[in-house]
Amino acid sequence: MSRSYDMNLNAPHSMGTTIIGVTYDGGIVLGADSRTSTGDYVANRCSDQITQLTEKVYVCPSGSAADSQVVTYYVSHFLHQHTIQLGQPATVQVAANLIRLLSYGNKNMLQSGLIVGGWDKYEGGKIYGVPLGGTVIEAPFAIGGSGSSYLYGFFDQAWREGMSQEEAEALVVKAVSLAIARGGASGGVVRTVVIDSEGVKRNFYPGGTLPLWHEELEPQNSLLDILAAAGDDTPTMA
User: Fold this and answer.
1) What angle do CA 180, 186, 189 make, to 5 degrees?
2) H or E element at residue 196
């Protein structure tokens, strides 16, 4: 008896994802998982969902991949022109307001939510959330994507003012790993970007190094690994 599985492969690419921005004493940390889906099918399991806008301003997208990408491309272009005209890098607030203008002006057509984070010499490290509809919200931390529904209570308990860079990055990685464990739309690896007055640092956390939660199983060797370790004791076919 055959079964037909409709995985909705023709659905638009969606970043059913988890994106996070956190401020710390001196800078900000952005983090995201790496799963991009098309319906129920994982179209890309290792996509980079932290995009550079300027030297020290980055953005994390969620929602429709196409909508998020086109907004990011336009804003990156406008910020480049802005930098040429003023002779200095654009601030984080300018980048967030450009995203707000594009998102609000096209709110009936766009399905994207973004988190903007970066550092500038005027205000230091800043995080802005631009959810569906084009509202811009400055906050000490912001979470978005489908995995964010699992994290609000966690952040209410875990976030605090005056964290160090190491504490903030550890919080971001822990939160994304929790969303990966709880939600099927988040997965893969975790990428982070740390931005402060000294520059930008990217970090990569493979899936096997992420914290395990109480309902998750320990990683197991594959059958090929077990057979290879058995060596001469492996049965052979005559």
Assistant:
1) 75
2) strand 190-196
